[in-house]
Specification:
Layout lengths: L3 H10 L6 E6 L15 E8 L8 H12 L7 E9 L7
Parallel strand pairs: 2-3
Antiparallel strand pairs: 1-2
């Protein structure tokens, strides 16, 4: 069964037009954690997008968080990001 918060997150991040978007649901690793109460989810995401070109990591993360700010801390409690522009290769 797909986590509905995963679907919502994937839809929101679609605005980045990412060449690569890999989102992992890590909620099971945080069972019993205070942030998990009430059904909040934990995710990690790897995003490769042209819109990140010539932007610092902080600026890249701000672009992402601006898209999901209203979802934090509920229904998404945590979002771990790995972001890069396509021209930066695998780092």
């Amino acid at each position: 069964m797909t986590n509905p918060h995963l679907t919502l997150l994937r839809d929101r991040l679609g605005a980045l037009h990412a060449l690569e978007l890999d989102i992992q649901d890590d909620s099971h690793l945080h069972a019993g954690h205070t942030g998990s109460k009430g059904g909040a989810s934990h995710f990690s995401a790897t995003i490769v997008a042209e819109c990140f070109a010539n932007k610092s990591m902080l600026a890249q993360h701000r672009l992402v968080y601006d898209l999901v700010r209203d979802l934090i801390p509920h229904p998404i409690h945590a979002l771990v990001l790995s972001t890069r522009a396509p021209s930066k290769g695998n780092t």
